[in-house]
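User: For my dataset I need records formatted as: sequence, then structure tokens, nothing else. Please produce one.
Assistant:
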Amino acid sequence: MTTVSPAQRSLTVTASALLAAIPLITLAMWFVLAVDGIGDFPPTWAPSFVLLAAALAYAVCELVGFRTSPLQHSDRSPAEVGMDSWRRFTASTFVRFAACEAVFLISLPLAFVVESFWVILTGAALAIPLFLWEVWPGVRNQQRFAAALEAGGVPSYLTEGR
């Protein structure tokens, strides 16, 4: 059985709340835009724009989202290094969240411009998996960030208990 640190538990709860906003806002927007059913599919430029935003968000997350300066050798205890690593991982998680959430947020005004709920569905359908892949504080993302932290040879203690 793996132990979960308080920092990981807190970040997971926060990420869950952030993720829950997407379907909740989608549901609320359904009452605004889908009065007469889901409606016709919009002109292709609108969902294409959301798709482009998703591709850009993915690129930002992959190319920049997991970068950090390596930990430096110091006389700090492993607990202090671990806490610093979690602070840095949390900050990085919020940067990746902003990029992924932008995909959904872009779809909201576009849906009003083209008067189609489909654009919001497209934004949600792209943002949720992107969020789960790039933002969720799971093993993959912890290991990627730990590798960046440990590039200088100093253990990060980010993945302790795994």
